[in-house]
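Cross-check.
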Amino acid sequence: MAVVGTAALFQQLTILLTLATLSHILFRRFHQPTLIAEIAIGIVLGPSLVGNAALGPYRYVFDPTVVATLAVLGSIFLLFLIGLDSDFRMIYTGRNVAVASGGVLLPLVVGSVSALYLVQPSSFGSNGNAFTVALFVGATLTATSVAITAGLLLEFNLLKERVAQTILGAAVVDDVMGLIVLSVVVGAEAGRVSPFDLALLLAEAVGFLVVGLAVGIFLLRRIVMRIHAEGAKLGLHHGGFIIAMAIAFLFSLTAESIGLSAIVGAFLAGSLFANTPLQDDFREGARHLGAIFTPIFFVSLGLQVDFSAVASHLDLLPFALVLLVIGVATKVVGCGIPARLMKMTRQEALAVGWGMTPRGEVGLIVAVTALSAGFIGDALFSMIVVVLILVSILPVPLFKRALKGVVGERLSAGETSVSGADDPARQT
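Predicted model, tokenized:
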């Protein structure tokens, strides 16, 4: 039995990592993010195609235990890495918090209300009800993924401009807000849905972040830095990173033990080492681990997409279209208006709105959490994943146009020294 289990592990790792790498190369040629490539590979390998029961003896089914174990490690390493780039002193400015707040609250409220009225009980999971399904759907729309946005900002050579700093900073803030929303929703799914319980859950989430950050900065970070320094003297260059990862797993365990999501703990652990001398070393180590496990996490999401289930729930298609419109409009409006109110120009505010539209890691994690807990069904999960992919791709041309407008504003104002402003027509 153990041999069979080990053979399945080796076989499936070989398939997943090989296909993920090949998909990266293919999708990058078309300037698409690798995240979408990984989900696409999962869809191909899942019950929609390769794993379809209609293929009979020719179908290939991945061991769900193997994939789930590797995937959860991928989510931990991913959130630890995101935390490493979260410098609280530079990120949590008034403008960034205002932009992020609008980009979290508006999608959460509008998405939840639309799900409450449009999602039929037949799309609920075995443990689902209208309230928790609505919360989960709204939560999937809250957090921004900056993978696509950052690539375009780099293309326009605008990473040091105000619009880029606002987008990237606000994206980190709304990731944290998204994780807090996820923590509250996870508690709500356990039956803690009274106003008092929800307030307590929110207090637990914020308290965990505050207390964990304080203990981490004043105690754990110093311990890790000391271990790293002493290990380096002995030729042991990875001691500090190993202990940092142990802290990430400890924080993940602590988060789960109080009813929060494990990824909240991983994010918090990573943020302890942001803007420290160890940041670059730890980022390199986390990227190496993430290069193996994080693709499997996103492939695992695709493996759970079942278009045959969607076909049997055609009543979800109108809701999918509504959710697609909501996913785009609420970010553009929710982030663009606060940016304008914070003295940004019209084109800058528009660029911020479009730049905050793509969704990714946290939204997908919320969706898979809802599916794993039995609160949404396979069809609704598959539809949400497809919508999150579409809202990440479709606004790209409009974001490019807004960035050209920002460059144009600089030129009109006589700021010819702006990076990338010398030939805006070249930036296509």
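Residues 416-428 have pLDDT under 50 and may be disordered. The first helix runs from residue 2 to 29. Passed to J.P. for a second look.
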